[in-house]
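Batch job 17 of 40 flagged for manual review because the log was empty.
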Amino acid sequence: MADRSALAAVKAISFDCYGTLIDWSRGLQLALETRAGLAAPEAARLVRRRGEVEWRLLGELEEFVPYRRLLERSIVIAAEEEGLQLPPDAAGAVAASIGDWPPFPDAPPALRRLAGRWPLALVSNVDPEDLDATVARLGVPFARRVTAADVRTYKPDPDHILALLHEMALDEFELLHVSAYADYDLATAQDLGVPAVYVDRYGRPLPEDVEVLFTVRDMEELARALTGPAPRQPRRGGPGFRPRAGERRKP
């Protein structure tokens, strides 16, 4: 664990979006079931395979292509590798569902608390119009957003964070980057000298050569760590009262 005193210098917080704030695997699986007609077990298999395929495709890119095309291509290849038949145009319909993917329940309230203290920013590989739809779902203002289309390259290349530092006029130590992914985000932040926090949503240990300020289980724990305990909620009760219930690769 790195020195948490680095937090004193932080002037803004940036986030990976899909997998950290947005439950992309759930959203993609639901789209595969409803838009491609796959049964749940088949959709789950394709989700797992597709992430591996996307990572390969990113390494093979010779020129920039919009993310929807990359997602569509990865779905087609993953289906072929899993021996699954997709209806014509199903991959494109699934790729168009990004803006419908749901936030993790802990993300919006935690972001609202953090937005009261720091400017927030997003760095993402998805296309700008899909990120716009996602931001509307999160319901929280972001001071800056950097997409792959803006920098013409994909994470884990450092250009997203470099562009963000430039646009927000920040030194590296003044930005805190938050992500659930060592490979797409945290290793890059470390290379750039940007302090980072790991959101361990999936129970994966960090690689030994990746250092972060600290690790949290979810966004609620991050908000507590950075701003203190959440205000106590008023008691609710009465007749009929029921309390509310509290993979690898990604987009």
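Reviewer: the log was empty due to a logging misconfiguration, but the result itself is present. Residues 231-248 have pLDDT under 50 and may be disordered. Unflagging and moving on to job 18.
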